[in-house]
Amino acid sequence: xxxGGKTMADNKIISIPDGKICDYVDGKFRNDTxxxxxxxxxxxxxxxxHKYDVTxxxxxxxxxxxxxxxxxxxxxxxxxxxxxxxxxxxxxIECKKETVDARNAKDGVEQLKSYMSACxxxxxxxxxxxxxxxxxxxxxxDQGKLDFMDYNDIPSADGNLDxxxxxxxxxxxxxxxxxxxxxxxxxxxxxxVNDGLxxxxxxxxxxxxxxxxxxxxxxxxxxxxxxxxxxxxxNPDGQxxxxxxxxxxxxxxxxxxxxxFDSNDEIKLAPRSLAYIVSELQKxxxxxxxxxxxxxxxxxxxxxxxxxxxxxxxxxxxxxKMTVEMVNPKVDEKVLDSSCGxxxxxxxxxxxxxxxxxxxxxxxxxxxxxxxxxxxxxLFQEKISEFSWLWLRKSVMIREEHLSSxxxxxxxxxxxxxxxxxxxxMK
Length: 427
Prior knowledge:
With 427 residues, the chain is α+β, with helices and mostly antiparallel strands. The chain folds into 3 domains: 152 residues, tt1808, chain A, CATH 3.90.1570; 103 residues; 111 residues, no CATH class. It has 14 helices and 8 strands. 34% of the residues are buried.
């Protein structure tokens, strides 16, 4: 929790009535609706990722717009604000259910812009429905009129805008709760809608970009290249620059993972879409985010695209974790999961072993993981990368001569998915 206070939901044990939720910020009971789910996820992100103090945030804040008094879903005041009045609102956030489109005349981004215009010192606004996200910075244009610039994200509590446009390794954030899932869904939906791809091809294009993100994070100690500035994202020339930058990373990915990608593979997204996807992913550390959060996001986005209609279902993660802890696999042992699907049990078992290897490596180095320098982290990454790939290959006991060609193709597809998860596990 941020310094200076806790959320209301953390202060006491409460009994929540059926059909209600306890608001993460102010502790009030609210109806458990799809729109409320979006708002609660955003509230957790503001507190845990952006590091705003709970005292800076107001929920369902009443605004004065002429004779109307609408309520903004979330408003944020600056830390040093002494009077939390409308004229001092700093950020406004509007949250909608998934079925409401950003272009909706009543509840879309124009509603947000009208709220921002009514607050003279409001600089930022965000509109989201969990699948779409729009961020604006308000400014006065050359004609002296209010205008709105598209931006990658709202600023965090420290107000640093540089990290919004080009994050540093030290500023990458760990995703919290369902926010990584929100990002994956937003990116996948953007590809599906704007590039005209069906859900499954859109999903695999997203995975290519995720590979690039992970490769860039692992390219220690070089500066991060997986980024787009707000200016680049907003114009065609800048979008092409971003595509060239990410394509260079993808060339490294193909060389490292020749069993997954052909040498002539390329990212097929339009430059505009790619720049948007990069802007959504760039602030997070996919390596350091909690494995359960990554696993949930991964499995839900896979579930929406590659299972269900074929009767395939995932074992719950808590069941996998409990089973693996009971079995307690060792480094030199093999794990057999004859119906491995996307490899959830295998990845959970590998994570179990890697955690012990990390503890042993930290003991050998005489330093806890949080105190490792870039060279130490890179050395550990190399050891674990080699180990994880060999361990997964040994553990997936499938003899191709006993399988039909269709099953082999299916196993190859899932091997691709297992690999993206194993890479995400690397510290």
